[in-house]
Amino acid sequence: MTASHTVKLLVAVVLSLPGLTDGFQPLFLFDGKSATHRDITRRAVLRKTAEVCRDMAASEGRHFSLTIDDSLTVDKVQRSCFSTSTFMSLLSSVRFQTSLLSMYFSNAEVDIVSALRKENHFDDESFLKGRDIITVGVSAVKASVKMKNFNTGRWTLGRVCHTLQDFYSHSNWVELGNIAPYSALIRPDQPLKNLAGPNTPTCGNCVGQNCGNNLLPEVLQQRLLTSGYFNIFSSSKPAGKCSHGGSFDWTSKQNPVGGINKDDAGSSHGSLHHKAADLAVNATMELLEDVRIAVGDKNFLRLMGLSQSSVPYFVTDTTSSMSDIIAEARGISFDVIDSRRETHEEPTAYILAPFNDPGFGPPTNADVFKNNLNKFFENGRGDIPELSLTGLQLALTAVPPSSEIFVFTDAPAKDAHLKSTITALLESTKSVVTFMLTDALASRWHHRSFKGHMSKSDVQLYHDLAEASGGQAIEVTKSTFSLATTVIQDSSASTKVTLFQEVRNPGKPHIFTFTVDGSLRNMIAYITGASSLTFSLTSSRGVSQSSSQPNGPLASYSTAGSLRRLSLNTENQTGLWQISVNSKNPYSIKVTAQSSLNFIHNLVEALEGGHTDFSLKEGRPLSGGNVTLLVSVTGSDTVKLREVTLFDGSGPTEVAGSLQSVGSGNFLVTFSEVPAGKFVVRVRGEDNSSTFQRQASTQIKTSSISLTAQASNTNIEPGSTISIPFIVAATTNGVINTNATGTFTMRINSDRNYTSTSPSTVTIEAGSGGKANGTVTLTVPAGAASGADVTLTIEAENAAATDINYVVLRFSVTAKVTDVTRPVCQVVSTSTSCPSSSSFCASSQWKFIANLTDGINGTGIERVTIRQGLGTLSTSTVAGAGGEIVTVVTYSASCCSQVVELAAVDGVGNVGVCVGRAQQSAIGAAVTTAVVNTTSNRGQILTSSFCLWISVVTFLLWTHINTINIF
Ligand SMILES: *[C@@H]1O[C@H](CO)[C@@H](O)[C@H](O)[C@H]1NC(C)=O
Ligand SMILES: *[C@@H]1O[C@H](CO)[C@@H](O)[C@H](O)[C@H]1NC(C)=O
Ligand SMILES: *[C@@H]1O[C@H](CO)[C@@H](O)[C@H](O)[C@H]1NC(C)=O
Ligand SMILES: *[C@@H]1O[C@H](CO)[C@@H](O)[C@H](O)[C@H]1NC(C)=O
Predict the structure, then answer these.
(1) Which of 168, 174, 369, 379 is buried deepest, with most CB atoms within 10 A?
(2) Nearest CA to ligand 1 atom 3
(3) Do the first three CATH levels of 311-493 and 705-813 match, i.e. the same topology?
(4) Is 741 a pocket residue for ligand 4 (Cβ < 6 Å)?
(5) 496-595: what fold?
(6) Check: CATH 2.60.40 for 824-958?
(7) CATH ID of 598-700, from 3.10.490.10, 2.60.40.10, 3.40.109.10, 6.10.140.1670
(8) d(Cα 685, Cα 692) in Å, to the nearest integer?
């Protein structure tokens, strides 16, 4: 059988184991007294997430003790959400923290990409357009979650929150005395009332520096809503209108002078800054609650990154002659899947990515995944070329950041041209890829043609990619297959941390020292290298063991080909350990363990314009320039970070950065010099008076090419084309060299077969200031599903092909939502009265019947859930008088549970909430009162006092949540 008749499967193991600003400051503010978008988002997300966990605990009868207030931390919420699982003594909050960070970064990005678009900030009284940004964005988030595209959903959510939060700083909502969020901003079906007309003056001049009373009295009396005008180029604004205020806003220098913004404590209306920020927190929670009801609690927690997820994977060969391996591989993967079912370790999704299968994805659940896996194992598929990198690309764009991916292959990659794209995606997602190379096996055992046999350079490609990501390339033979799969199990632990990883090429003897801290469990060392390699271990208490002892006091080890796996016994031996490796051939060493204590790092760059804020830096840092990292410690609220370094193993050289705490376990770390080649981030610190060290998996490389590309909108409608302008520049010592000239090769790659265009090269001409511009376009097919996402990688390479930089952009396909109305509820009847005395409640039942409809033009009701009430729900559908589909819900409950609250969600995630109460009677007496008085009024539409047609009901403590799929 030739290689072309084999089937390669890739199974991604999703591991659980991370300017001119106008608005609240995006991420950091060093005045120590003002709230940023980051603070507001953090408070809202932590509180809402804790509420969801509390409600889920209540519905499952679990204890939940966390107090929900602003003292919540990522780790407190993470722990309390999983407190019942005894096996989870170790918990990783890397994914939760990473998700929060991505929401902060996308929120902050609005100030860069859309800095001057008034509707993104509710400037210039752009209330309707601003509301559109929010409601269109919320629909996009719901569509993304429906398609299980949590990464893009999160990214969109961060952007939407920015606009919503800005409303409270930029409008006079707070000045009007409001103490609750403006709910109409997340309700496209509601009118925005009392907007100040275009010709209505709203402000008078400020008195000197004092802008406390600049809103006109009639505006306050008539409760007219207005917002400040803002312009950094021109001072013109409509007569009599308020300005935003501040030194960048020219309009505030013309009458009426001064402004009304509450961006920070020192702003024009800075005395109201905290009121505005607090309202922005509550408004963000209201928006999150709307998303929560639409997507359900489990999906909401996954959107927030709060699941311990993961595991599923591989790539293998399905020829019958490999059946032993297939059986074992399948057995192991099924074991891992089943052992995590219904636990918090259950992955967000399982992804099976057969090489070059256009039908790949979307991510599926465990059962579908197992079925697919069986199909792939049982029905060999012919003529699939070995597009292993294409399969990997698909996996990388679909998995959560910091995932572990395993690729099984026995053939060279025929799509090696994707190497730089894969490297970019590995760097950008910080995912780890491990290649299981079964080449030796395939050729030796099955007498297949040597077509598939890998040359040294073929193998090197896999080694390079593995090394760049912090993974390994393991050559597997039949006899060592089971050890190789043990590596999968090691790596798929949700709390895996790396202590250090180094490659020595060329090989020379070296003594590696590392610190073992008290939080570590299951420490494993991997050493790969020639069979002549020897090593010895010395523990902190001076105990030693050499490689001639497979089972000794410090480790037991086994060997699979070039791989040695040492399971270390570190009990009562915290402190400094040594591994001395003796080899003249190249080798690598990696020490991992399980621990809650870990860290995340992100490259950030200072915003231009004199502000002391930062934004996420896409792509590689500039050679010779400064590097700033945002380092976030996870797993402990008490940890002291002592040192963050950039380590380059080739020297080896290690440079230390200067640390600045920015709160909540986050540190800005600035490096004024950076190692020249590739390097990794290492941290050292103390927790509970124990010293610890950790290393990031992903390597960082620098580039002398500056590539910037920004899309003005990340939501694209099916059938439309988006243009993404980019700028390429050559840099010297981290700054653009305005004298440089040169030609750069451009490559763009998307993970979908969507049409895209790009110049194949761009040239920096003399006299152009050292920059060249171009435009990439991306066209989304008319038939693309709403909620689908597409990842675009744009690369620029120098003429000598020695240097590359890239930008990774993610877009979400968002169809125009025409159904903006919420499902409507008509209560049909509330039958049977309940005794008013609770001591008799258990013996009586009551029933509530209602008709729910999404109207004739609606997308239809998809789901009805019980948000409060301990009864049972049944549904049926009938055709209504106007041809609409009516969902008849019948709820019955014991009289011990006398209130029911139902949520109906339509096809695009509009939520309608319906409340009913049992009628009460004195014992033995006739029915006298009914809270829902509809028994004799069939079909009466409930007034708002009975049926809450609001998106959010935050304050009810519901005790039972039940989901019914109507279709
Ligand atoms: C925000 O909501 C909380 C309840 O979740 C409430 O106690 C608080 O007063 C609200 N804050 C504002 C500013 O409305
Ligand atoms: C570690 O220390 C504890 C407490 O001192 C002791 O009970 C345990 O036996 C020790 N374990 C080993 C392997 O020495
Ligand atoms: C790097 O940082 C130093 C010190 O903060 C500063 O003087 C220098 O201008 C920075 N260089 C670049 C390229 O940003
Ligand atoms: C660019 O060229 C000018 C004139 O030759 C020189 O003065 C300047 O230092 C050069 N700039 C850089 C960044 O090399």
Answers:
(1) 168
(2) 282
(3) no
(4) no
(5) Jelly Rolls (2.60.120)
(6) yes
(7) 2.60.40.10
(8) 6
Distance from residue 790's CA to the centre of ligand 3 (Å): 36
- CATH of the domain spanning 311-493: 3.40.50.410
Residue 83 has pLDDT above 70, yes or no: no
Any residues with CB less than 8 A from the CB of 430 and at least 6 apart, and which?
Answer: 18, 401, 402, 696, 697, 698
Q: Which ligand is closest to the CA of 278, given by its number?
A: 1
Its pTM surpasses 0.70: yes
Tokens of 344: 């918090």
Q: Using CA positions, which residue lies closest to atom 10 of ligand 4?
A: 739
Measure 704 CA to ligand 4 centroid, in angstroms.
Answer: 17
Average pLDDT over residues 685-702: 93
Pocket test for ligand 4, best of 704, 739, 764, 771 (most atoms within 8 A of CB): 739
Evaluate: CB of 44 within 6 angstroms of ligand 1.
no
Cβ burial of 548 (10 Å; 0-12, 13-18, 19+) is: exposed
Q: Mean of the pLDDT values across residues 289-303? A: 94
Determine the longest span between alpha carbons in the chain, in angstroms: 96
User: In ligand 4, which atom is closest to the CA atom of 738?
Assistant: 13
Task: Give residue 700's pLDDT.
Answer: 95
Instruction: Among 626, 628, 702, say which to mutate for ligand 3: greatest number of ligand atoms within 8 Å of CB.
Output: 626
Q: What is the pLDDT of residue 368?
A: 66
Residue (of 346, 365, 182, 303) closest to 909 by Cα position: 303
Q: Which of 767, 761, 777 is nearest to 728 (CA)?
A: 761
Residue 922 has pLDDT above 80, yes or no: no
Residue 958 alpha carbon to ligand 3 centre in Å: 55
Q: For the chain, give every domain's residue range.
A: 34-303, 311-493, 496-595, 598-700, 705-813, 824-958
Question: What is the third-level CATH fold of 705-813?
Answer: Immunoglobulin-like (2.60.40)
Is 349's pLDDT higher than 60?
no
741 CA from centroid of ligand 4 (Å)? 12
Is pLDDT of 4 > 60? no
- Give tens-digit pLDDT for 181-223: 999 999 998 999 999 999 999 999 998 888 999 999 999 999 9
Cα 82 to Cα 67: distance, rounded to the nearest angstrom: 15
- Best CA proximity match to 97, nearest among 314, 240, 306, 388: 306
How much is the pLDDT for 812? 93
